[in-house]
Amino acid sequence: MGRTLQNTMINLGLQNACDEAVYQLGLDMEELEEIEEDAGLGNGGLGRLAACFLDSMATLGLAAYGYGIRYEYGIFNQKIRDGWQVEEADDWLRHGNPWEKARPEYMLPVHFYGRVEHSASGAKWIDTQVVLALPYDTPVPGYMNNTVNTMRLWSARAPNDFNLRDFNVGDYIQAVLDRNLAENISRVLYPNDNFFEGKELRLKQEYFVVAATLQDIIRRFKASKFGSTDSVRTVFDSFPDQVAIQLNDTHPAMAIPELMRIFVDIEKLPWDKAWDITKRTFAYTNHTVLPEALERWPVDLVEKLLPRHLQIIYEINQRHLDHIASLFPNDVDRLRRMSLIEEGGTKRINMAHLCIVGSHAVNGVAKIHSEIVKTQVFEDFAALEPEKFQNKTNGITPRRWLLLCNPGLAELIAEKIGEDYVRDLSQLTKLHEFVDDDLFIREVAKVKQENKVKFALYLEKEYKVKINPSSMFDVHVKRIHEYKRQLMNCLHIITMYNRIRRDPAKLFVPRTVIIGGKAAPGYHMAKMIIKLINAVAQVVNNDPMVGSKLKVIFLENYRVSLAEKVIPATDLSEQISTAGTEASGTGNMKFMLNGALTIGTMDGANVEMAEEAGEENLFIFGMRVEDVTELDKKGYNAQLYYDRLPELKQAVDQIKSGFFSPKDPNLFNDVVNMLFHHDRFKVFADYEAYVRCQEKVSELYLNSKAWTKMVIRNIAAAGKFSSDRTIKEYARDIWHVEPSDLKIPPPNEPRDAGQDKTPNGTAA
Fold first, then answer.
1. 287 an active-site residue?
2. Which of 19, 229, 273, 438 ranks highest by number of CB atoms within 10 Å?
3. Is 150 noted as a catalytic residue in this protein?
């Protein structure tokens, strides 16, 4: 979620008033804003997407709740020591959190372990361990519409009789100390992005958020007029018409068997009725196609932790496979491929299959990704129910990612096309009229230059590095992962370095290359990549032959509040994943909206950005999905490229020989060995096209006017990538609710006096 103060002031239309009031107290609002800790309760794009969605849902007047876990420790703070990533605990609640309100009156029990007893009256889950879920509510204000939604995060609490109700040996002290075991559930966020780690505590977290949330939803449904009671029994027929639940990846997949358990075991609905209601309630968003990221929980673990849920999953699977078998008799391989249970070695539950079978809609997050989901990853399921599969291209909230982080640009745009674009970003197309307006071109360039100077000052203050604000700011910020190919960027840096040294007199367009992002603590290769970037920076930044032509900076502890600083100052946005691996990307959209040009592959939402702006207004290079597939068929041989390309060979040899690690020449052996022998993401195959494309970037940068005109065309084409547009599509195609742009009256006015109001909320 990042910080809340400035976003709240903007959405309430109070920023200028607050700035002025604080100034009159002799204080500086920006200094105050810098004191707030980021709420870092997710890993990367998927968590930030949820935050943008909450902003859009409130702005569109949808009655929506965001549910999650109130981690005591969020994503770790990253320190760079001697070039290596070191993790520190993110104690973000140390000074309290003024935005949250504990709601102990809505505390709910969540059960674990135990056993299942079957009888004539149905199944009973008994002898369980209970953990209490305590909700904390954070307000989510819509933009200037007097609407405030709720984000409800659950914290784990031990019941007061925890470990004291059992046949107790009288160790009261130990029993109280053991309360920590239960409360550890919400202690810490697992820091893996795009990687599945099958740990028991993680499964506990996933079930904890799901069980508490579903009880909360059902309580709210029963309290409403729709949960009509038919002689003490609730009638749930209207449940899917009143409730829509969107599963953000498979992490909350246990919601499907949990809702079935509530309906069948507790509410005593017949299976078929319960299943029909469940399917119509859930929809599933897939966020990755990387096989190592797909959740596959061992059956033994689920059986121990959630025995009743395993039985329900088996029953869902049996009925699912019976249905497949009736359509495709004797096709045992199809049954194996489509089963929710993977046999062979340890039996596992494929959570994506569970989500597809238990949902009425499945979507990817960009056109190309949704295509891959349909034709490759889940092709058997799409063949069966093609109408279930949709696309919903991701978006970003223009409130945080333009108004808040880039007020200079936001104001410049408003001067030209009015202020309405903030709620309807498609209006940015009106900027096309000003693409040849010399004054506007100069003003856009001026705002960018001011942002660069401000960021350069920040870097000087924080990192004691002096950088040239007139150099091209070439920025690559995102989680560190092999598929995102920070290594390819690194090879390009080394190549530029070698070119400068080979011919110091030759014209070179000065660059400041900024790379930032966190590596999962257990991801060895990602940590080596960070060390390599820092080792290269050490050499490049201290070579007198290079001077101010090339600087390399690794941005420590990349997070939302740092993104808000670096993105508005960026000239060139690096979006260089291997085609077919980045589901969408959203950083790409933030850079586009903030006046950076994109160098990228035809992957994720880059494809649609090129479609909107025209391919000639992005720097597109490298293999397309088809080329990658072709190369896989042929067999990727890295040695071929190494032998054929002298500059690539030189760069790799320098890494290999210890040129960047003289004290330990073998330091990067693992990296080099990976690049030659098991590089799934084919860095060498795109190297030549990447370097050539970068030459075109430098050439255009020399022509400031042509560069800025291309920037304006990009901003004018960024309207599609508002999360408001994304949420309208979810609302209409999946949730079947109508967004409203009505501004409800503020609380100091009578309810019926809604419409004839000026923006400040007083009578017109």
1. yes
2. 19
3. no
